[in-house]
Amino acid sequence: MPASLLQHPFMSQTALSQCNAQAMVKAMLAFELGLAEVQEASGAVPAGVSRSMRESLEAHVFDSEAIAAGIASGGNAAIPFVKQARSALPDDLRRYFHQGATSQDVVDSALMLLLKPRLVALESLLVRCRSAAISLMEAHAGTVMVGRTLMQQALPITFGVKVAHWAVGLEQARRRLAAIELPVQFGGAVGVHSGLEGAGGDNLGLIFMDALAGRLGLDVPILPWHTDRQPVHALGTALDAVAGAAEKLALDVSLLTQTEVGEVAEPSAPGMGESSSMPHKRNPVRCALIRGAARQVHGHTTVLLNAAAQPLERGLGEWHAEWSPLIDSALLLEGALEQAAVLLEGLEVHPEAMRRNLAVTGGGIMAEPVAKLLVPTQGPDVAKRISAEAAETARLQGIAYADAINCHPEVRGRLEAETVARATNPALYLGSSKDQVQRARNWLLDG
User: Fold this and answer.
1) What pLDDT does 109 receive?
2) Catalytic position from the list 86, 314, 385, 395
3) Are 170 and 126 in contact (CB under 8 A)?
4) What letter does residue 314 receive in the DSSP assignment?
């Protein structure tokens, strides 16, 4: 697969450089050395073993290509990795390496270690998005634009409240992701720490597991989770929630950047958004990258969801199917949020286009408040009919909606022009838009 051309452009380049094969090997090694250290601390292995292991293995150059080739026979990266590590150790240390662990312990814990800095990076990007969104909300709390339902003009809102909804969606997803735990995995062959009895006969497995979590900076699970994939399910769906919020932002922005709408534009940059054949175009490429990445995250999430129920004490294919979607989701999401942060920080807002689009129907979007104005004298059914007829007249004749109402035969002379003008002024029919901006701002700042 030409990943550098088809997959990697949607991902964070920083994350890609930090989540390569060598990083996976380093994470597996961190698990094994951490395990040796906690076992030595309890007296399960002789003093000095963990230090000697570390000196030997941290200086060793692992052959990641050979490890990759070994997966075809072993089924996972831990098996060939453990073989390489043992062969690099002096004979007197080999028996203590990987003691009491199984391959799933190594792979699951290594994945958690790889994902830990990615969650830190995602948190930072989401905070950037929140800060930029708050600035936009405050600047445009009173910027009137048309609200659209079913892709059609509906009633007026403010651009500030639109941004507030983007911000709240991203922040809700951020808080959900921030609560995710990355637990260590350590259970041994069938998840019950077989053969790890201490001098007094008590099994030390849970003690090792808890100590290993602390040493690696991972969370302590209740039990080993070899076929209890709730941690992966929770993480995958939390990543997907962020992807959905970012995609909503990109979808709205891309629709508002359409030539005929023109209410916002992506931040300009040399060559950004250019067409291969049409020099005049300024395509919303950042939105495309965000949506392309998000769609892939959604797809990866379905794989994780379908792997949630795993058989007996070790998955057969379900566990194996999780590895790439889990890492790829984080890398894709980080790439999407890098674009989203730049998008929000530099979004060009065009209030004059918003005013122009409010007038496209001649003001016909104000038919609802006009109908309410007519109800006391005309009744609800007739009021609705008159307001609709006037909207159609304004559209067909290209006149202002207020004039169409004033000229309607069933209304002419019955309402003062000033009353009609107020009822047809979009800026006076914004509902709770401004209050929502303030409420959202307070909630966002409390986070």
Assistant:
1) 98
2) 314
3) yes
4) S
Burial of 269 (0-12, 13-18, 19+ CB in 10 A): exposed
pLDDT band at 416 (very low <50, low <70, confident <90, very high): confident
- For residue 353, what are its two tokens? 């286009």
| 3-state DSSP assignment of residue 76 | coil
Q: List the Cα angle 43/44/49 in 5-degree steps.
A: 85
Residue 272: the pLDDT is 61
Instruction: Report residue 65: phi and psi, to 5°.
Output: -70, -40
In whole angstroms, give the CA distance from residue 362 to residue 296.
42
4 has catalytic annotation: no
Q: What are the distances in angstroms from CA 244 to CA 25, 247, 419?
A: 32, 5, 44
- Measure the CA–CA gap between 153 and 12, rounded to whole angstroms: 37
Summarised one tens digit per residue, pLDDT across range 302-353 is 999 999 999 999 999 999 999 999 999 999 999 999 999 999 999 999 999 9
Inter-CA distances, 352 with 267, 355, 424, Å = 18, 5, 19
Chain Cα centroid distance, residue 319: 23
CB-based contact 192:186 (threshold 8 Å): no
Instruction: Supply 19's token pair.
Output: 């989540």
| pTM of the predicted protein model | 0.94
Mean pLDDT of the chain: 94
Place of tokens 């911000």: 167
Give catalytic status of residue 275 as yes or no: yes
**Angstrom distances, CA of residue 369 to CA of 82, 129, 386, 423:** 73, 36, 12, 6
**Would residue 413 be called left, alpha or beta, if left means φ above 0 and alpha means ψ between -120 and 50 degrees?**
left
β-strand partners of 317: none
Q: What average pLDDT score do residues 240-251 get? A: 98
Query: Which of 39-43, 160-164, 392-396 is predicted least confidently?
Result: 392-396
Cα distance between residue 215 and residue 212, in whole Å: 5
Helix/strand/coil for 149: strand
- Write down the pLDDT at residue 417: 87
First-residue to last-residue Cα distance in the chain? 42
C-beta separation of 195 from 244 below 8 A: no
Task: State the catalytic residue, choosing from 124, 275, 324, 432.
Answer: 275
3-state secondary structure of 265: strand
Note the pLDDT tens digit of each residue in 340-388: 999 999 999 999 999 999 988 888 899 899 999 899 988 999 989 999 9
- In the chain, the domains with their CATH numbers are 12-101 (1.10.275.10), 104-201+215-349 (1.20.200.10), 364-423 (1.10.40.30)
